[in-house]
Design goal:
mainly alpha, 5 helices
Length: about 90
């Protein structure tokens, strides 16, 4: 199993709609892949936050950093689109 296959099955993994053999393959991949392990943990935490309707206030410094990171990424994507069209 590779990361693309893992991510393609992620929703079913969380909905417990995967067969036992596939769940075993997903778990085995996650054990050896830190990226997918982090993805699962982050997704699980996000689901729990929304499931519990909990609101979290961000400190202004983190809010500013997050906002800047999003703007930077959007600018990068826009520049990449321009380059591929040229």
């Amino acid at each position: 199993m590779n990361c693309t296959e893992f991510l393609a099955n992620l929703a079913d993994y969380f909905d417990a709609k995967t067969a036992a053999t596939l769940r075993s393959e997903l778990a085995q991949h996650m054990d050896g892949c830190n990226h997918c392990h982090v993805t699962v943990n982050t997704t699980r935490q996000t689901i729990e936050i929304y499931r519990n309707n909990e609101l979290y206030e961000l400190p202004d410094s983190i809010r500013t950093q997050l906002h800047q990171a999003v703007l930077t990424k959007c600018a990068e994507l826009k520049d990449n689109k321009k380059k591929t069209k040229a």
